[in-house]
DNA sequence: GAAATGTGTAACGTATCAGAGTACAGTTTT
DNA sequence: AAAACTGTACTCTGATACGTTACACATTTC
């Protein structure tokens, strides 16, 4: 299942795999992507998320046929976000089934 | 492919399927979920997204064994967000391959 | 018909976040 | 040494989730 490991921030993949494969510096990549260098740097180091817009940039930049599908980038990000949320947010909610069985009770 | 139809906002599913199946009003659902009624209403009517926290609330409320998996709610939301982003955001970016072939040129 | 309940939504405040721009310190490359 | 690259902090703008409050409208119940 997808819940057993700490999913990497997608920026990590970008920094460790994509950029080296393309032989590009952060500065060059930011220029080609049309974003500010600090903005890309934050993504690469996990300080900012892959936004839908950034995912579209990556898709057009890398090409859908080269593993650059926007939905995959967003899925990775969502996986990461959910993992983080599970660590810091513990809702205490009565299951709807149980709640339904106790409509009159409190 | 997942790009051929307009994906519904996950709140729509919640409003049209889940709540009726449980026989709950919006007010009751909001109470059980531990969120304000206007907040849930915004989600149900597509005015607000399913946040990671909200996804966790739904998961604990509905139960993972009842189609309430947080990752599925988030995936639906991401699908919706991406679709919307494709409509309003058209990045003009030179593909990295082409850019690599023209490192010297401008 | 009046009261209660449910609903959508607007308005406002708070917190958070993406992104641009700027600046600076530290490192690597030339 | 000089130039380039990098991470990061700071500020500003715009957007968003959420709470609270308030309002208008509808539906239900007495």
Structure description:
The structure is a homodimer of 106-residue chains. Chain A has helices spanning 10-22, 26-33, 37-44, 52-62, 70-88, 96-101. Chain A is mostly helical. Chain A starts with 9 loop residues before the first helix and ends in a 5-residue tail after the last helix. The A-B interface holds A 2, 22-24, 32-34, 52-53, 55-57, 60-63, 66, 70-71, 74-75, 77-79, 81-82, 84-86, 89, 91-97, 99-100 and B 2, 22-24, 32-34, 52-53, 55-57, 60-63, 66, 70-71, 74-75, 77-79, 81-82, 84-86, 89, 91-97, 99-100. The structure holds a DNA duplex (30 and 30 nucleotides).
Furnish the topology, listing elements before pairings:
Two copies of one chain form a homodimer.
Chain A: H1 10-22, H2 26-33, H3 37-44, H4 52-62, H5 70-88, H6 96-101
Chain A binds a DNA duplex (30 and 30 nucleotides) through residues 25-27, 35-39, 41-45, 47-49, 51, 53-54.
Question: In a nutshell, what does this entry contain?
Answer:
Two copies of one chain form a homodimer. Chain A is mainly alpha-helical and 106 residues long. Chain A has helices spanning 10-22, 26-33, 37-44, 52-62, 70-88, 96-101.
Keywords:
homodimer; 106 residues; mainly alpha; 6 helices; 61% helix; DNA-binding
- Rounded Rg of chain A: 19 Å
User: How much helical structure, as a percent, in the residues of chain A?
Assistant: 55-70%
Shape of chain A: elongated
Low-confidence spans of chain A? 101-106
Specify which chain pair forms the largest interface. Answer: A-B, 39 and 39 residues
**SSE-based structural type of chain A:** mainly alpha
Compressed to H and E, one letter per element, the order of chain A equals HHHHHH
Mean pLDDT of chain A: 91
Oligomer state equals: homodimer
Quick one: biggest sheet of chain A?
none
